[in-house]
TrEMBL record:
GO CC entries: monoatomic ion channel complex; plasma membrane
Primary gene name: Kcnj3_0
Full protein name: G protein-activated inward rectifier potassium channel 1
Occurrences of domain Potassium channel inwardly rectifying transmembrane (ranges): 8-148
Listed transmembrane segments: 45-66, 120-143
Length: 321
């Protein structure tokens, strides 16, 4: 079957783009910090470099302008003359003085004299502006680097979901795993069924979302994810798959979105991993191969068999039948 458009990709990226915002696009500027954090790395680095470059050139030009208006550039080599900033002869020297002041390097060759009130005011303004720019941009880069999105890449989902019997009941199952030794604290899993439908009143609901119970009432959705786990959705009278059979599965069109959330143990930040399964990725009458084995004093997980399934006898009828 031709691959259709997904709502959520296998890597968790949501295929939704917002367009025709009109005047609502100004809301992005009202929350500028979050907007910068959400940008891609190349745009973040470009804004970071341009902001500092422009700020440095503007502030250096202001120091050079003070020296030019006071006539310090023409009398800088006169030992009897007291300039605003000592040893500032031209724009490069004014730029070096600004950098020394901003970075608190202080080589000692260039300094402000006490006979320059406008220089003192500019120095205070530079200190305040530099602190604000540093806090904003460096804070943005720090948040960008510490985002737990990369942690989600070490959380695995099986490529396919399976339908088979467990404890005498027809169940939809998939597997999740954690590749790192560090744990996910308070890990919780949720499932959404994305399927278009029409109401009895004739209203068409595209991409309608329906909750799939994976143990909310029993606490089975709270995971202790130290080894691969098989998540089970019991297909009963409350399940949207109650009338789904092996034959009707071929003509259905739906998408199951899986959301795994938890707190990263090492950083304390909340992490979310997502994936999805279309009807083509649901295998009827299959079960996952075991991946756990007992070694000498520990349990070993064989991730080479993480996605592997095998066929088991399963009635081709729906749970209702």
């Amino acid at each position: 079957r031709r691959e259709r458009q997904r709502f959520v990709d296998k890597n968790g990226r949501c295929n939704v783009q917002h367009g025709n915002l009109g005047g609502e696009s100004s809301r992005y500027l009202s929350d500028l910090f979050t907007t910068l954090v959400d940008l891609k790395w190349r745009w973040n680095l470009l804004i970071f470099l341009l902001t500092y470059t422009v700020a440095w050139l503007v502030m250096a030009s202001m120091w050079w302008g003070i020296a030019y208006l006071r006539g310090d550039l023409h009398q800088a080599h006169d030992d009897t003359y007291s300039p605003c900033v000592a040893n500032v002869y031209n724009f490069p020297s004014a730029f070096l003085f600004f950098i020394e002041t901003e970075a608190t390097i202080g080589y000692g060759h260039r300094y402000i004299t006490e006979r320059c009130p406008e220089g003192i005011v500019l120095f205070l303004f530079q200190s305040l502006l530099g602190s604000i720019v540093d806090a904003f941009l460096i804070g943005c880069m720090f948040i960008k680097m510490s985002q737990p999105k990369k942690r989600a890449e070490t959380l695995m989902f099986s490529r396919a979901a399976v339908v088979s019997q467990r404890d005498g009941k027809l169940c939809l199952m998939f597997r999740v795993g954690n590749l790192r030794n560090s744990h996910m604290v308070s890990a919780q899993i949720r499932c959404k069924l994305i399927k278009s439908r029409q109401t009895p009143e004739g209203e068409f609901l595209p991409l309608d979302q329906c909750e799939l119970d994976v143990g909310f009432g029993t606490g089975a959705d709270q995971l202790f994810l130290v080894s691969p786990l098989t998540i089970c959705h019991e297909i009963n009278s409350k399940s949207p798959f109650f009338c789904l059979s092996q034959r009707s599965l071929r003509s259905e069109q739906f998408e199951i979105v899986v959301i795994l959330e938890g707190i990263v143990e090492t950083t304390g930040m909340t992490c979310q991993a997502r994936t999805s399964y279309t009807e083509d990725e649901v295998l009827w009458g299959h079960r996952f191969l075991p991946v756990m084995s007992l070694e000498d004093g520990f349990f070993r997980v064989d991730y080479s068999q993480f996605h592997a399934t095998f066929e088991v006898p399963t009635p081709p009828y729906s749970a209702k039948e």
